[in-house]
Write a structure and sequence with these properties.
The structure holds two protein chains of two kinds. Chain A is α+β, with helices and mostly antiparallel strands. Chain A has three helices and seven strands. Helices cover 22% and strands 43% of the residues of chain A. In chain B, the strands form five sheets. In chain B, strands 12, 13, 14, 15, 16, 17, 18, 19 and 21 form a nine-stranded antiparallel sheet that branches. A four-stranded antiparallel sheet of chain B has the order 5-4-3-6, with no helix packed on it. In chain B, a hairpin with a 3-residue loop joins strand 16 and strand 17. The chains are: A alpha+beta, B alpha+beta.
Chain lengths: 162, 448
């Protein structure tokens, strides 16, 4: 691994921050554009205790096709569960760069996630691990793994992306 | 109030509730929204019906324990030293402390209460208390406090599925489920060696609605078209105009059938059994079109013979309901468990089973289906959950106190021991409510 300079670190961390900002702004098409063609959005059911190669259950484990499906549904006029409007807010702690070289990087970002609809507000917290890859179109997200605190507890519907 | 007087009073009130709440073809909203009805359900209905507790594969070794809260009662399932399964109340005989806090743990060779170190053998018999001499001359030995951990009197294990009945009222296990238990056999026999194992963790969802709204929907074949329109439309958009017969990814194979037309659901067929049980999809279901697995099918024929193997493999119902706590499929090997928490709050669990000796793809299908359709982050379930919660809120409206169950009803409808109907007939729900009203009216006979 070659050491990376501070400006590269800032560039990578900005991508992670942008990803959350676009979700909070409801700009789902722009959000999808941050992802690599080989995408994986993964929320393991056992949280941080679940090994990367473990074939356990997950709250969500989605490739690019399923992410596009979700976004298409969010736009559908008869997505009943989105009425009244659902919105989210990510509150991120600064990302820590675990690894970075010219082609790939891994960042870990502790977060608080709040999803609100009508009188209900749901709060989740945990750590997100982004694996970024350098493509012809710039840095893209290859995988986002979300380790929730208390991932196995009963949850109400979590409708947007953590 | 004296227990006897309360029982008589409960009996009368139960009768009154039954007459007022359940009509032949409709149900009163109080069945879903009245806290008094819910309190009575916890006392009589949930105590007089057989509830799924846990699966034997969760406690393979001596000292293994799983804890379950069932209709408000803390229970535990333990594997004893001689390999037996025991179900005990998770409550120290001394002061009431829960003996086991973890959902799943090995307690070793005995239970030890964390509060005062009272100890019990794995079958619940008392072993020791500190300052034993302090009890000399007291009535402890003749009191239930001296008798160890209270076992459940009504426990039955069928194909490793452990069921309990909390109270003494209501029919025995075999009579209560009758032939509806065949759904568990057909699920277990998806394994060439007839054995299932819980695999991969359980998805748990909190639904802010009465449990009956969730359970009825398991038999509701007319909602997918309207409810799931957005998920199906999105799937079609993403899947695009690929040629007919193009091999679908597993997720598409599982989501696209939710868009099947009314005819498909009507013709899938259904069967109702006494005591609220049912099988929906006796002829086909949205699970019938999953890819064939020739090697597995050959292994099944070798294990079970041509006829039984065909019966097992063709049984892919939409849902089989073992009323009121369980809904199982056959393919995928998926089971939902319904637990009442409050009049407007329900816990739904989605369990995945590995069919021992079957190819890994069966478990992959099961976990994928549970994740796509039953996870709190499910693409499909969000609209369901939203509408269940909407019903719970909408029923606060005055002006119309009734919930309609009229579809397919004929006046004088009698429930035959077993009855086959079309897949969109609301007989499956009427059948549930007839059982519910009957059992609700049973006196309060839960052992003190």
């Amino acid at each position: 691994m070659t050491a990376i300079d501070a400006s590269r670190e800032r560039e990578l961390a900005a991508l992670v921050a942008d990803e959350a900002m676009l979700l909070d702004a409801g700009r789902f098409d722009d959000w999808l554009a941050l992802w690599d063609a080989e995408a994986r959005y993964w929320v393991p059911l056992a949280g941080a205790a679940q090994a990367d190669d473990e074939r356990g259950q997950s709250l969500a484990d989605e490739d690019r096709m399923l992410l596009e499906l979700r976004v298409a549904r969010l736009r559908h006029p008869r997505a009943h569960s989105l009425k009244p409007r659902v919105a989210c807010q990510h509150v991120l702690q600064p990302s820590r760069v675990e690894h970075a070289d010219a082609a790939a990087a891994t960042l870990v970002t502790p977060f608080v996630y709040v999803e609100a609809q009508g009188a209900h507000e749901l709060m989740l917290t945990g750590r997100a691990r982004h694996r970024l890859v350098r493509t012809a179109g710039g840095w893209k997200i290859r995988e986002k793994r979300v380790d929730l605190l208390g991932a196995e507890r009963p949850l109400p519907a979590v409708q947007l992306f953590v | 109030m004296e227990a006897a007087a309360r029982m008589a009073d409960d009996g009368e009130r139960g009768d009154a509730m039954r007459r007022v709440l359940v009509d032949d073809d409709r149900v009163h909203r109080d069945a879903y929204v009245d806290p008094e009805v819910f309190a009575r359900e916890l006392r009589t209905f949930w105590a007089s019906t057989w509830q799924y507790l846990a699966h034997a594969s969760q406690v393979p070794n001596a000292g293994d324990v799983v804890t379950v809260e069932l209709a408000g009662r803390p229970l535990l399932l333990v594997r004893t030293g001689d390999g037996e399964l025991r179900v005990l109340f998770n409550r120290c005989a001394h002061k009431g402390t829960k003996l086991v806090d973890d959902e799943r743990v090995n307690v070793g060779r005995h239970f030890r209460c964390p509060y005062h170190a009272w100890t019990y053998a794995l079958d619940g018999t008392p072993l020791g208390v500190p300052l034993r001499e302090g009890y000399d001359g007291t009535r402890l030995a003749s009191c239930s406090s001296g008798g160890g951990l209270a076992p459940l009197r009504h426990v039955a294990v069928h194909r490793d599925f452990v069921f309990v009945k909390l109270g003494d009222a209501g029919p025995g296990f075999a009579e209560y489920f009758g032939d509806a238990l065949g759904a568990l056999d057909l699920l277990a026999d998806r394994s060439p060696v007839g054995t299932l194992e819980v695999a991969g963790g359980v998805l748990r969802t909190i639904v802010r609605a009465n449990w009956k709204i969730y359970l009825e929907n398991i038999n509701d074949t007319v909602h997918p078209m309207a409810t799931h329109e957005s998920a199906v439309a999105a799937a079609r958009t993403v899947w695009g105009d690929r040629p007919e017969g193009a091999e679908k990814p597993m997720a598409m194979e599982q989501i696209l059938p939710f868009g099947a037309p009314y005819d498909f659901f009507d013709q899938m067929g259904a069967r109702v059994y006494p005591n609220g049980h049912s099988v929906l999809g006796t002829k086909h279901s949205i699970h019938s079109g999953y890819g064939r697995l020739p090697e597995y099918e050959a292994a099944m024929r070798a294990a079970y013979g041509e006829a039984r193997a065909a019966e097992i493999l063709e049984h892919a119902p939409q849902n089989a309901v073992l009323y009121p706590s369980v809904a199982v499929k056959g393919s995928p090997q998926s089971m939902r468990v319904i637990r009442p928490l409050a009049v407007d709050r329900t816990l739904v669990e989605a369990w995945s089973f590995r069919a021992v000796g079957a190819p890994d793809v069966l478990l992959e299908r099961t976990q994928t289906y549970n994740r796509l359709v039953f996870s709190p982050m499910s693409i499909v379930a969000h609209d369901d959950l939203h509408l269940f919660e909407s019903i719970q809120q909408g029923l606060a409206a005055e002006g119309n106190p009734w919930i309609s169950l009229h579809r397919g009803h004929r006046s004088g409808e009698e429930l035959q021991p077993v009855q086959d109907v079309n897949g969109t007939n609301e007989l499956l729900m009427r059948n549930q409510f007839r059982a519910w009203a009957h059992i609700l009216a049973l006196g309060d006979e839960v052992r003190a």
